[in-house]
Amino acid sequence: MEPKEAPGKENMGTRRKNLPFLRSRLYMLERRKTDTVVESSVPGDHSGTLRRSQSDRTEYNQKLQEKMTPLAGCSPAETLTQEEEQKMQRMMAKRSKIIKELIQTEKDYLNDLELCIQEVVQPLRNKQIDRLDVDSLFSNIESVHQISAKLLSLLEEATTDVEPAMQVIGEVFLQIKGPLEDIYKIYCYQHDEAHSVLESYEKEEKLKQHLSLCIQSLK
């Protein structure tokens, strides 16, 4: 006959299994007390506020600084070898190049949007051409332009006069994530319809001429 477990022993085991889960929940609740709320600064954005953990940001910045400047606080015996130092320098140079390319890409994209709005969208709106629906053709391109300008501004602010090792651009994307999603959801959702509208306009000679003139001006 197998010995019976003492009353409550099974419950104690279950409680022990639940302890790690409870500790993690309590830890998250404590961290949430330090969360900061950032309001969206994009005009017309109703995506609400973005809640970010102050401890997350501090921890990330500290880890980044330690990774990028490993010599700080090291004893002579712990200093990097020449090979390791060269590897770190290459990594830093690559990271800096990626950030610069990212910002330049945003500048080029914003410039393309501005040209499209100035040379195509606005002239077509001003002409008020019958059977040509500019909004169906270009969707919310002005909102895309506004959020792109905001993103570029935040990226430049995060990198101007800041040492390369201290440039933290991930925070920028977290801050603007909500507005970006809301605006591009509309733009992407209407993309197929806009493509169909364009194909139908190209079949009408008069509308096709108007579009061709705008494209020539854009070029």
TrEMBL record:
GO CC term (a single one): cytoplasm
Start and end residues of each stretch annotated as Disordered: 37-58
Record domain DH: where: 94-219
UniProt GO molecular function: guanyl-nucleotide exchange factor activity
Superkingdom as given in the UniProt entry: Eukaryota
Spans through the membrane: none
InterPro entries tied to this protein: DBL_dom_sf, DH_dom, Dynamin-Rho_GEF
Pfam family, one: RhoGEF
Annotated PANTHER family: NUCLEAR FUSION PROTEIN FUS2 (PTHR22834), RHO GUANINE NUCLEOTIDE EXCHANGE FACTOR 38 (PTHR22834:SF17)
Protein's UniProt name: DH domain-containing protein
Lineage: Eukaryota, Metazoa, Chordata, Craniata, Vertebrata
